[in-house]
Structures are given as C-alpha cells and as structure tokens.
Automatic annotation (TrEMBL):
Gene3D superfamilies: NAD(P)-binding Rossmann-like Domain. One of its GO terms (molecular function) is oxidoreductase activity, acting on the CH-OH group of donors, NAD or NADP as acceptor. It comes from Cohaesibacter celericrescens. Pfam families: adh_short (PF00106). InterPro entries: NAD(P)-bd_dom_sf, SDR_enzymes, SDR_fam. Belongs to the short-chain dehydrogenases/reductases (SDR) family. This is Short chain dehydrogenase. PANTHER family: SHORT CHAIN DEHYDROGENASE (PTHR45458:SF1), SHORT-CHAIN DEHYDROGENASE/REDUCTASE SDR (PTHR45458). It comes from the Bacteria.
Length: 231
C-alpha cells in the first residue's frame, strides 16, 4: 500500500484529491485539515473506506501541529505529498487598499507552509521509492501571466513556485520528484460558480498527471490537464 498526504483536504479540490486516491486501490490517504471533527464529507469517507484513510488535525501555519504530523507519520514511507492548503488573502489587495497583516498570513499559508511540511515529512519521502511532492500553485503566480490586483495571493504563488523549483533541484539526486500545478479555474469557494471546471475534473487531472510524472519532470510547472504551464 502506498501512502499519500494531502493538506487542505476537507473541501474543494483537496476533498476531490482524497476521493481520487481512494479510488485507486493501492493508496492509503492521510487527509489533513484544521478541524477533522467538523469535516463531515471526510468523515463519511472514513466510514466508507475503512482502513484506507486517516484524518489528521493540521493548521499548516502552526509549527507545533506540523511537527505532530511528522511524529504521527514517523517511520512511514510517504510516496506522495500534495500541498493543497491555500487561501486567497482577503479582499484588500489593491494598490489603494492593502491589508499587510493579511498579506503576511497569505505568505505563511501559501508559501512557507508547503516548505515546512515538505521538510518535516522528508524522512518519510526519502524512505519511499520514487516519492513525489506536488504543490498546488496558480497561473496567477506565473510572471508571464498578466494581471492586476491580488497582490497577496499572486506574490505568494509566485514565491512558492520559486521555493519548490529550488527544492526540486536539491532533491533531484535523491530521486524525489517535485512539481507545481495550476489547478485550473475551478468552481470552488475561491474560484466561484462561473469557473471553467469542477473540483472533480481538476483533481482527476492532477492525479492522472501525477501518476505519469518521473524524475525527468522534476521542477516542472503543469496545468491540471498535464500541459506544461509557462513560468
């Protein structure tokens, strides 16, 4: 049985990623969210997939809880880490009105936390064969993508792109593949009801593409459907 850790797994793309990996018979999913006791959809999956899903309480910005996750998974090879947890950064992200405290929190969630979690779980990733680290980014973090506003969100995704690109270089010789995904414009609380694709479509595309990744792809930035995304 292979083991997958997914953060931000209680709704949207994260929840659909949990379902995608549970649909693959060879995977055990470690689903992380802030309040598992209130995550009804996840708890239903526990009931319907006995022995194949474990819930973990995790605020990705809380160093103590991240360390507890590492301790809970100590000695367990981790085949796949999906850094999915993320926030939009609040409403005040325009040139005339910026909430700098919210910006700092956005960087903590979207940029720093994926690195902290990857670093904490690195022993388990190293213990697996051909392990992979997937981080959900956004096209808004690509310097080639033209947009205005959303200073907190855009900068946090641009920064995590660089963080994971650097991590990919450092882990390449160990055979650990590290990539980023633009999940598409998804019909979630963040993307809104008018978005292009459903969370299920996004998650299935990400999972299918991740299955095909090899170390030759490390450091890559991909769209949810497997196409290469420009930086």
């Amino acid at each position: 049985m292979k083991h997958c850790v997914i953060t931000g797994s209680n709704r949207g793309v994260g929840l659909e990623l949990v379902k995608a990996y549970l649909s693959r018979d060879t995977w055990h999913v470690h689903a992380c969210c802030r309040e598992p006791e209130k995550a009804d959809a996840l708890r239903e999956l526990v009931t319907s997939n006995l022995g194949r899903i474990t819930l973990h309480s995790l605020d990705v910005t809380n160093a103590v809880l991240v360390q507890k996750l590492g301790e809970a998974l100590s000695g367990q090879p981790i085949d796949l880490l999906i850094n999915n947890a993320g926030i939009m950064g609040g409403d005040r992200q325009t040139l005339g009105d910026i909430d700098y405290d919210a910006w700092a929190h956005t960087l903590a969630v979207n940029t720093i936390a994926p690195m902290r979690i990857a670093q904490t779980l690195l022993p388990g990733l190293r213990a697996a064969s051909n392990a992979k680290i997937v981080t959900i980014s956004s096209q808004l973090g690509a310097l080639s993508y033209i947009s205005t506003g959303k200073y907190a969100y855009n900068s946090s995704k641009a920064a995590v792109n660089k963080v994971m690109k650097t991590l990919a270089l450092e882990l390449k010789d160990e055979g650990i593949t590290c990539v980023l995904f633009h999940p598409g414009w998804v019909q979630t609380d963040m993307g809104g009801p008018s978005a292009d694709i459903t969370p299920c479509e996004s998650a299935q595309g990400i999972a299918d593409t991740t299955d095909r990744l090899t170390i030759a792809d490390t450091g890559g930035f991909f769209k949810w459907n497997g196409e290469t995304h420009p930086w």
